[in-house]
Amino acid sequence: MVPVVKISNLDKFFGHLHVLKNISLEVAERQVVCLIGRSGSGKSTLLRCINFLEEPSHGSIEVDGIIVAGGEKGSKHRQLVHDVRLKTGMVFQEFNLFPHMTVLENVIEGPVIVKGMDKKKAIELGEENLDRVGLLFKKDEYPMRLSGGQKQRVAIARALTMEPRVMLFDEPTSALDPELIGEVLNVMQKLAKAGMTMLVVTHEMGFAREVADRVLVMSEGEIIEDAKPSDLFNNPKDPRTKALIDRYRSGEQ
Amino acid sequence: MHIFTGKQDTSKSQAELLYDIQLRKERQFRANVALSWFVLLAILIFAFSGASITIGSTTYSGIQVDTQFIRDNLSFIAGGLGETIRISILSILLAMALALLAALGRLSTVPPIYALSTFYVSLIRGTPLYLQIFFFFLALPQLGIVLSGLVSGVLALGLNYGAYMSEIFRAGLSSVGKGQREAAMAIGMTPTQTMRRVILPQALRFAIPPVGNEFIAMTKDSALVSATGFVHELMWRATKVGRAQFHNLEALIMAAIFYWIVTLLLTYVQSIIETRLSKGDR
Lengths: 253, 282
Hints:
The complex is a heterodimer.
Chain A: E1 5-14, E2 17-27, E3 32-37, H1 43-50, E4 58-63, E5 66-69, H2 75-87, E6 88-91, H3 103-114, H4 119-132, H5 148-161, E7 166-170, H6 178-193, E8 197-201, H7 205-211, E9 214-219, E10 222-227, H8 229-234, H9 239-252
Parallel strand pairs in A: 3-8, 3-9, 6-7, 7-8
Antiparallel strand pairs in A: 1-2, 1-4, 4-5, 9-10
Helix pairs in contact in A: 3-4, 3-5, 4-5, 5-6
Chain B: H1 14-47, E1 52-55, E2 58-61, H2 67-78, H3 81-106, H4 111-125, H5 129-139, H6 149-175, H7 178-186, H8 191-221, H9 234-244, H10 248-278
Antiparallel strand pairs in B: 1-2
């Protein structure tokens, strides 16, 4: 099967710092992939390279058949990046909802302004997605009046309304109070069950174990392990993976 | 509520009582300030009323103003209000446009654009507003460019305030977090769409209260335009009748009252806008 996301020989430098080292990765349709690793291991940067919030230094990204080489400039490159962004939905750690727009306006902004979708149709689609995350009743509120968990669910609905082929989650629960994490993870789990292709950078080991099809462990800019969660958590091959999992275990207690 | 009886608890909690005391203190303070304002105003009015008052053995008398002159010229001077407001509105619109451009230039990474922005701000802030008005009105005709008093005034005020206000807009633009730009980019917005739909609305909202202050200041600085002699706003009218009949005292007091009233009204409007903005709804 043709992968939805294919990363080939990706390198990323920040100045002299080599943060991603020759990464290659394929994600099949409907697959849920969790990226774990210590902070600074490059997992967020890798995710942000997929929709070019970070420009890769070398290598290429392919999303749903659109191939974009990293480190290039010019209008053709910009067009390709734009096309890739339309295929990817992004959820940020800090939600990044637009504070001057209502919940519904946030959700339909992309389809209407970027895709030129008919406003009526966008509202229909937006309301459907707000319903999926359980927040249709908040559609006329401003983000300021929502809890962190609600904000993140709106952010998920906003990304979904662009009808992406793959969803990218960048530590979606890290900025949340512990009691609000569950509602966001539930929405993500529902989304996974519905067959959405997902890449999730997370520290939530429970989520990785239960929902992911694959877990990737990153360390110092490399993928050091790529396995099914049951294998990875029960018998980690790399000692660094073992250390990471032990650290989480002790933190959970 | 008592959990067991279900009765409404009538006595107030400690925190509520403390809050009430605090509230009462604040209210008392505001009432006293209002009273003091009233007394100061009464003294000011008395000082120019021509009336006299005897306290003990001393008699204090107010300055005698010519009330006939005031009655005769009231409508003439008041007629300048419209022109004052017109200049101020035109100038603030120009100033906002220039300030926004200068602020965007200041955030640009292209050296000539950045330089143009800082050069403009430096040049304008480094020279007097009075000089700038005369430059447009008196110096440009030497180059064959003849501008009316109104156009000269609006250009000078707009350029001048634009330079000062660029800092406000720059602060507004930088107040919008980097996450907002990223969220807009992630849904595929172009840089122009991101600026227009996401960054600017938030930056402008941030800038509204300080721009209000600048507008209030500008209505008063518009008096400088009277120096061209061809714009019949408040100040020009006051000095014209004041000089002609040697009643500058009365004429200037009248103009001052008009400026003050306009300022009070604008301050009031601004405070309403500010409260509404701080509530977080539009």
